[in-house]
Amino acid sequence: MPLRFAPGDADALPLTVLEKEALGAWLDGPGAAHRAWVEAAGFRAGIGEALLLPGDDGPAGALAGYGDRQARARERFPLAAAAQALPPGDYRLAEGLPAEVAEREALGWLFSGYAFTRYRKGPERPARRLVAPGGVDAARVERLAAAEALTRDLVNTPAADMGPAALEAAAAALAQRFAASIEVTRGEALLSENLPLIHAVGRAAAEAPRLIDIRHGDVGPRLTLVGKGVCFDTGGLDLKPAQAMGLMKKDMGGAANVLGLAQTIMEEDWPVRLRVLIPAVENAVSAAAFRPGDILTSRKGLTVEVNNTDAEGRLVLADALALACEEGPEALVSMATLTGAARAAVGPDLAPFYTDDEGLAAALSEQAALWADPVWRMPFHAPYEAMIEPGIADLDNAPAGGFAGSITAALFLHRFAEGAGAYAHFDIYAWQPQPAPGRPKGGAAQGVRALRGALPGTLGL
């Protein structure tokens, strides 16, 4: 179901948004006629509370609780909690929602309408639609909601239906929609095209590994997005335990996120030369699997000692980043579900990012707050460079010791990102483990809205 605003407000119920501290004044003023009804219903204006108000011929309006400041600080989209509690129908904001949060809350309302129904039979869920609030850029909000829906759909699809070939098909469909070009290098051709790390990681799987390369636009600065497309990660010969393998359909979350971001950029027709690179593989186990102790030579010529086949994401990204930098893009972004260390550091909600570009870092933090897309800056900490240098090869894909795992992974990628004007790496989770207002359990976009707002300044647009 498309995540869109209701087309008009002629039949939409007026919705009053009430903070807890404003409820008493409303009941003494414009809501006085409904005081007995509201008090009898036990409505206290808490987050997630909603109430229809009676009229002569049916509902005259509705109330949505907005809680207090402390409660709102704990929810990314407080109004979405009320949206889920209201009966199906169309609503228009009448009063009470601060103008400075209207766009963000409208986005959360659209997010609350998402459902992944590919494998479920039955009628569609009745919609709770919102008329676009005044002053809100409705088209922009709908574009952001559509990008989120694309990302969620891709991540939520199980690996049996979202292997490298299916991920390629999804990328091709997006490219066709916007008249973008797409080239795909598959299987043994990866070796002849000097993409050996992508080939090594994916060669054991039933579906051939591949590099997906989308281009859109032929004028303006170069912007390249690189997304990890490991469609399922067994861990390879360093096999994951069952508990750790259960969510590995989401290990292509980096690819899903860059496709969502690319969709927005192409919809908005940025004057850039956009390139999207997705190494799409499955890290499987067979006689052809790469082994612990192997030393692989990357596209850049740097050799890598494989000390853990479950640290495969940085390998496939390395070749893609090296390829990207051969064109000297003004901005380069990599997104990947890369390390458990990032989750241990900041949990599932925050998206850690790394960049040496101070302007980009500041813009990302600003846009993250504006769009309820929380990120957290982490350092390319140079003293840890020695941890990724094993001695027998140029680089180690899995340093021993267990310290600073997200940082050392970022430093590894940084070696392959030389030549870009500005580089940012996101170590994301791409998954919402527990349902929350506007954020159902399942696949999630992280950092996409922050990047969409921050990149134009970096590119001089």
From TrEMBL:
<feature type="domain" description="Cytosol aminopeptidase">
    <location>
        <begin position="308"/>
        <end position="315"/>
    </location>
</feature>
<keyword id="KW-0378">Hydrolase</keyword>
<dbReference type="InterPro" id="IPR000819">
    <property type="entry name" value="Peptidase_M17_C"/>
</dbReference>
<dbReference type="GO" id="GO:0030145">
    <property type="term" value="F:manganese ion binding"/>
</dbReference>
<comment type="similarity">
    <text>Belongs to the peptidase M17 family.</text>
</comment>
<dbReference type="InterPro" id="IPR043472">
    <property type="entry name" value="Macro_dom-like"/>
</dbReference>
<protein>
    <submittedName>
        <fullName>Leucyl aminopeptidase family protein</fullName>
    </submittedName>
</protein>
<dbReference type="GO" id="GO:0005737">
    <property type="term" value="C:cytoplasm"/>
</dbReference>
<dbReference type="Pfam" id="PF21337">
    <property type="entry name" value="Peptidase_M17_N_1"/>
</dbReference>
<keyword id="KW-0645">Protease</keyword>
<dbReference type="InterPro" id="IPR048816">
    <property type="entry name" value="Peptidase_M17_N_1"/>
</dbReference>
<keyword id="KW-0464">Manganese</keyword>
<dbReference type="InterPro" id="IPR011356">
    <property type="entry name" value="Leucine_aapep/pepB"/>
</dbReference>
<keyword id="KW-0031">Aminopeptidase</keyword>
<dbReference type="GO" id="GO:0070006">
    <property type="term" value="F:metalloaminopeptidase activity"/>
</dbReference>
<dbReference type="GO" id="GO:0006508">
    <property type="term" value="P:proteolysis"/>
</dbReference>
<dbReference type="Pfam" id="PF00883">
    <property type="entry name" value="Peptidase_M17"/>
</dbReference>
